[in-house]
Amino acid sequence: MRNLHEYHISLTWKGSINIAKNYRYDKTYELSFKNKPNLTGSADATFHGDKTLYNPEEMLLSALASCYMMSFFYLCSQYQIVIDSYIDNPVGKVKVNPNGSGQFEIVTLQPVITTTHKDMLVVEELFSQANDYCFIARSCNFIIKHNPTIN
């Protein structure tokens, strides 16, 4: 029997269309989650969105970074390794094609991890292995680089 989990959200377009401006769409939307606050988003400002709102590229990057961190913590718990702090500043690069389509080409995770564990190489290896456990990383078709700093 497969252990299958379903996730549900609701996405509602909140924008409008300006026919006079070459059918330009306001790309504001609202994401609704059961028993959680709604989140308002838009396209990146580069793509005629609202720069004050979350965009899908930022959300994909945040989903990947947070899932990766949780997978790393899972592995650390298996080895009884205590992590004292974890701060990541991931960078994602998106290529826009001539026809207007695009895709993520690469994401670099670059956390600063603080631990009192005596073997930093083990911690670094577990961070690398987290790639095999992270649901989001395993679902991506772009390069995910790892550049941790372990103190």
What is the chain-wise order of helices and strands? EEEEEHEEEEHHEE
Euclidean distance between termini CA atoms: 42 Å
- CATH top level assignment of the largest domain: Alpha Beta
The CATH superfamily of the largest domain appears as K homology (KH) domain
What's the CATH architecture of the largest domain?
A: 2-Layer Sandwich
| Backbone CA Rg | 19 Å
Contiguous uncertain segments of 5+ residues: none
Q: What is the strand content?
A: 25-35%
Mean pLDDT equals 93
Number of helices: 3
**Can you tell me the overall shape?**
elongated
Largest sheet: 3 strands, antiparallel
CATH topology label of the largest domain: GMP Synthetase, Chain A, domain 3
Fraction in helix: 25-40%
Domains (count): 2
**Total count of strands:** 11
| Order of strands across the main sheet | 1-4-5
Structural class comes to: alpha+beta
Key features of this structure:
three-stranded antiparallel beta sheet, elongated, 2 domains, 32% strand, 11 strands, 151 residues, three-stranded mixed beta sheet, GMP Synthetase, Chain A, domain 3, alpha+beta
Your description of this structure?
The protein has helices at residues 56-78, 120-129, 135-139; strands at residues 10-13, 17-18, 24-25, 29-33, 36-41, 83-87, 91-96, 102-109, 112-115, 143-146, 149-150. The chain is an alpha+beta fold and 151 residues long. Helices cover 25% and strands 32% of the residues. The strands form four sheets. It has a three-stranded antiparallel β-sheet with strand order 1-4-5, with no helix packed on it. The mean pLDDT is 93. It folds into two domains: 10-47, no CATH class; 56-150, GMP Synthetase, Chain A, domain 3 (2-Layer Sandwich). The protein has three helices and eleven strands; from the N terminus they run E-E-E-E-E-H-E-E-E-E-H-H-E-E. Helix 1 crosses helix 2.
